Structure prediction request, 198 residues.
Amino acid sequence: MKILKIEYLIRAGKFGESREFEEIIDDVKKAILSVTWPPESSSFILYPEKKANGVVPIKKNCMEYLKQQGWKLEHPMLIASRKKPGKVDAIKKLEDDRYSAVEWETGNISSSHRALNKIAVGMLDGILAGGILILPSRGMYQFLTDRVGNYPEIEPYFPLWRSLSIDKGVLAVIEIEHDGLSHDVPPIKKGTDGRAKR
Prediction:
């Protein structure tokens, strides 16, 4: 798996320059690079047919790597502004008792908006020091489940999150892409998320 871009929507205060944040971004980068297909390979090769590949299995290696580094998976994140806690894909407790969150998009574009909003509200509430959303590129998106959230579709809304009055913390979006394409690899199996195949 390749990282094309890390876009910082918010990088304010000391946390974004801290040793803790450097460890977090290092964890996330290595977790993304650990994603392979087929599973036993050393790279990430997609079956090159439009909408042919599922998305849920793709993040498995990433989340397993983060878990090995001490992150908690599918953890309910308590946000003061919400009556019900929302789960995040991965969360890590920091030295100041705040958390850092990671979301890997497997839903549609509205889910991408919700993920960034959830992280931003957590930062406003002082629960989160920051968070990262991982999204496929335009080149990768065309081979995945139809309408899955992707970097180009959410990029026009970045000014909204940049305008938030947050003076400490990090909010970032990482754009990812496959290493190559081949008809010699099997399509990534689609699971079910509610009624939608993912």
